[in-house]
Amino acid sequence: MADQKATNVHWHDHRVSSDDRKKLKGQKSCVLWFTGLSGSGKSTIANTVDHKLAEMGKHTYLLDGDNIRMGLNKNLGFSAEDRSENIRRIGEVSKLFSDAGLITLTAFISPYKEDRDTVRELLTEGEFIEVYVDASLETCEARDPKGLYKKARAGEIKGFTGIDAPYEAPEKAELVLDSNSKEIDDLADEVIAFLESKGYLSA
Q1: How far is residue 187's CA from residue 35's CA, in Å, rounded to a whole number?
Q2: Residue among 48, 35, 29 nearest 172 (CA)
Q3: Cα–Cα distance for residue pair 129/77, rounded to 1 Å
Q4: Which runs of consecutive H residues, i.e. helices, occur in 56-183?
Q5: Rounded distance, CA 189 to CA 167, Å?
Q6: Number of C-alpha atoms within 13 angstroms, CB side, residue 88?
Q7: Catalytic annotation, pick one of 43, 84, 110, 179
Q8: Under a CB-based contact definition with an 8 Å cutoff, are residues 162 and 137 in contact?
Q9: Backbone angles phi, psi at 62, to 5 degrees
Q10: Catalytic residue at 29?
């Protein structure tokens, strides 16, 4: 699906540059890519970070896995191929949002290292921030907020990440969050502190 099919198309440069948009917003754009098992807390942490940044007057947008699959990617399932295409599309959307000067947060299992690395390569150096929400399978199964692990163990869901489909944990994530024992607010504050320390929250 990633092959270029359209012909006679040409890239148009914009008179308003990405740097112009960042200056207007008083921040540096980036993509916070939250990855981890289902039930690790990705969406909840990303949502909390998004809220905290909004309270600070920062311009953000949150792309959540389930929400995206109800619209842009509603024609994709959970095969390895569809998972890769799901992440490719989100990567392209994230690139556009970053070009617009936004701090973009994404919450996707994104189980394959190759797919995450492909998104990293779409963005300029320093724009892609991989955030590994580290929670053990035991922790996630104990939480099981959507009852998906129970269904997967019963054989009602096939190809479920962590049960009968792989999850390739990041080896060199910019940020690792210990979701086994820490509270959501504390983990969100770790993300905010990272952004502040790296200068993303000022132009």
Answers
A1: 14
A2: 35
A3: 26
A4: 65-68, 80-99, 113-122, 137-143, 148-153
A5: 26
A6: 11
A7: 110
A8: yes
A9: -110, 125
A10: no
| pLDDT tens-digit series, residues 111-168 | 999 999 999 999 999 999 999 999 999 999 999 999 999 999 999 999 999 999 999 9
Say if residue 1's pLDDT is above 80: no
For a pLDDT cut of 90, what percent of the chain falls above it? 84
User: Per this entry, what is the length of the chain?
Assistant: 203
Contact, 107 vs 43, CB < 8 A?
yes
pTM above 0.70, yes or no: yes
CB-CB contact of 16 with 82 (8 Å): no
Contact residues for 101 (Cβ-Cβ < 8 A; gap 6+): 18, 21, 22, 24, 25, 27, 29, 59
